[in-house]
Amino acid sequence: PPPQPSNLMLCYLPPLPAWNAVNRLRHLCHDKTIARVPPCLRVAHPVEFGTMKDTKNIQDYRGKEVIVVGARTVQRRGYTVLYLEVDDDAKEMAMEVRREWKEVNGKDDDVENGSNNGWKDKKTDSQKFVPSLILGHFTCSDEASTYRSAVNLELSRIGGISFTPSSLALLVRRVENEPFRIL
Asked: Is it true that the peptide bond before 46 is cis, omega within 30 degrees of 0?
């Protein structure tokens, strides 16, 4: 049977040095998904398998640099997400790939699946997709804020993180708690 939408993700994978740097931050935050989800700049998640087309038809933006501008938190359905925010050029790159993905596939998978991977925009009260590298999920917003401060301090100490994505990847897993693998 095809995987469920929550088991497919379109993302950019960082090269090994940035991969390791992001995973060190995820380890610092005690990210429970570190063994199952690789560090990645999410473009679309969840993705519905039945509408999936060849990603080769999507513009390749691998030559663009992604610069991490800091750690941020956002409230989501009863928990707080801690993530690395990327620069505006990287956000636009991810959004363009997302638009192309939707065009190639003929529909907005994540909205139709009831989870648009968006976060509430406080100004418009609407869901808004935010390209990001997720560091962890917390039930206590104070705990997430503490880790956000620690991550921002560590980013200052190491001189930040920037990378040129090594690949646009479609990640898949058969069931929810299984590790993602590159399709």
From this structure: yes
Phi-psi region of 70 (alpha: psi -120 to 50; beta: other; left: phi over 0): left
Q: What is the pLDDT of residues 87-104, one digit of tens each?
A: 999 998 888 888 887 777
Distance, in Å, from the CA atom of 32 to the CA atom of 50, rounded to the nearest integer, reads 29
Q: In the predicted model, is pLDDT for residue 137 greater than 90?
A: yes
Q: Which residues contact 92 (CB under 8 A, 6 or more apart)?
A: none
* 29, pLDDT greater than 90: yes
pLDDT for 105 equals 66
| Cα–Cα dist 97/114, whole Å | 21
Are the beta carbons of 18 and 73 closer than 8 angstroms? Answer: no
Q: Dihedral angle at the C-alpha atoms of 141, 151, 133, 160, nearest 10 degrees? A: 150
**Residue whose pair of structure tokens reads 């993530």 in the numeric block:** 83
pLDDT greater at residue 51 or residue 144:
144
Is the pLDDT confidence value at 7 over 60? Answer: yes
Contact 2, 46 (CB under 8 A): no
Q: What is the distance between the alpha carbons of residues 44 and 130, in angstroms, rounded to a whole number?
A: 10
Q: What is the 3-state secondary structure (H, E, C) of 59-104?
A: CCCCCCCEEEEEEEEEEECCEEEEEEEECHHHHHHHHHHHHHHHHH
